[in-house]
Amino acid sequence: MTGLERDLEHILAQTADIWEEFRESTVFFTGGTGFFGRWLLASFAAANDRFRLNAKAVVLTRDAAGFAHRSPELTSHPAITIHPGDVRGFDFPKGRFSHIVHAATPASAALNSERPLEMQDIIVEGTRRVLEFARGSGARKLLLCSSGAVYGRQPPELEHVPEEYSGGPDILHPGSAYGKGKRIAELMCVIYAREYGLEPKIARGFAFLGPYLPLDAHFAVGNFLRDALEGKNIRVEGDGTPYRSYLYAADLAIWLWTILTRGQTARAYNVGAEAAISVADLARLVAATVAPGTSVEIRRPAVAGKAAERYVPSTARARAELGLREHTDLPAAIRLTADWHRLRLAS
Question: Which H or E element spans position 297?
Fold first, then answer.
């Protein structure tokens, strides 16, 4: 049994009581080709097989051929159907749907920086299109995969940011397009809940680690893993002082399915880990776990007296209301992610 197969077994064990809700149903996914989406699809397919749900998944994608190349184990599954289209203007698939998972947002810091209008358009217009589809599809429950970016800059003195925090992105900074777009998407979900009786649930994601995480994007931990797996020294481009926390992907899937099925309507839940680690210490932990003896290079000196930036959630709401918790610690998450990438490289 591979590590991914064990992860899927773990997900099913922790979510066994929710799957009856999906029996004989059809679920519509956007963002199914991304990190969140592939974990949700893989666990949906595994649950469909295990519990004989006779459920279906319709997955919106702009690049069906690319998705099939990257994830043939998903696109070849008999319960999964591809629906071509752009989230901003896709043709509504025919038939009745029970649930919608809306996770379509480019995981691209470059797009947010270089073409912020396009980033905001994908989030805002895409969410509006999905909500309009939900109105006529029969679906009531909808999961919006939002982001901790809705809080803007986390004050250094605030160790864990709660859902009640009233801060927000700088509206006069073009780089805020992603965070502001997610705030508007959340607001639209709340409005559609009030005016049309939909039941949207909002998951504000922070930082994650696990199989399917790209090693060539803007995720620092992915870049560290890439360097370690390639036998290179790990480079930290900044001063290494910011704090992050990482939830393992199998736990992420458990949290998202639970929020969709058990979360309160029009309510936001932080999704992430609470154990904070500096970026420099994260790089050292990756080196020690994946390739002992690997050197870590910090490219910039820390500024004396400057408070370290933080991006660390409080998950008290999810733990208290939904009984969610972390099952995999950070060293294990790093090892499992590295093992998955090693297998891919070997094959």
Answer: strand 296-298
Mean pLDDT, the chain, integer: 95
Residue pair 145/203 in contact by the 8 Å Cβ criterion: yes
DSSP one-letter string for 70-112:
H-HHHHTSTTEEEEE--TTTPPPPSS--SEEEE------HHHH
β pairing state of 141-147 and 199-205: parallel
Expressed as residue numbers, the domain containing 335 is: 3-346
Residue 251 has phi, psi (to 5 degrees) of -65, -40
Whole-angstrom Cα distance, residue 287 to residue 26?
A: 43
Compute the C-alpha angle 275/278/284, nearest 5°: 105
Question: pLDDT tens digits, residue range 218-228?
Answer: 889 999 999 99
Give the pTM.
Answer: 0.96
166-189: pLDDT as tens digits: 999 988 888 889 999 999 999 999
CB of 39 closer than 8 Å to CB of 33: no
CATH of the domain at 41: 3.40.50.720
Are 272 and 205 spatial neighbours (Cβ–Cβ below 8 Å)? yes
209 has which bridge partners? 248
Q: What is the total count of domains within the chain?
A: 1
